[in-house]
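Changelog entry

Holo records now carry the ligand SMILES as an explicit input line rather than a separate metadata file. Below, a converted record for zinc ion, shown in the new format.
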Amino acid sequence: MNSIVPPKQPPADAPAEASVTRPTRSEAEAAVSVLLRWVCDDPTREGLSDTPKRVVQAYEELFGGYAVDPVVLLERTFEEVAGYDEIVLLRDIRVESHCEHHMVPIIGRAHVAYLPGTRVVGISKLARVVDAYAKRLQIQERLTAQIADTIQAVLQPRGVAVVIEAGHQCMTTRGVHKTGVSMVTSRMLGAFRDQSDTRRELMAMIQAPRHSGMFES
Ligand SMILES: [Zn+2]
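Structure line, unchanged by the conversion:
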């Protein structure tokens, strides 16, 4: 990982690939209507008449990450490190994504850590970076790598670690129908990759008991 380059983002109103022309909203709604007929239902019946419109609206939210530039999210919030040089960990960030093979949910949680160099970032920005990449069509491996690589490239800390545990509905509600299975992926950069004691400290922090309700207000 010698040359980490933040992924290039399209402008907020552009499709992900410049070569793909974004259809109009009514074309998208018509496509949902086709799928309703494909599953052998009647798109004109009362309960379904507004469904194409609602699905397209839902997609805007579920896939809103394409309109967010994670690099910009992190760039805005550099602060002085104030002498703090230990691990910063945000754990149990809810992950809501969709698998790019079946377009069904991937639900889980992410733990994002970094070792500050000269700067720190507001912790809510780490959660926003997770969302920016999760709210796209994904595979968990790439999602994990994108979050870590972007934090590394923009913040340039001494190390970055991202661990994601998630269930994939494409294998729980269809296909092999295996429930209760979670997939765990990780990306370790810098000190988390090179120093086993730093990595051990991180894993202990991630696994430390949760005190439910203790920090909620
Ligand atoms: Zn899938």
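Spot-checked after migration. The helical segments are 25-38, 51-62, 70-75, 123-134, 140-155, 169-172, 191-194, 196-207. Residues 138 and 149 are 16 Å apart (CA to CA).
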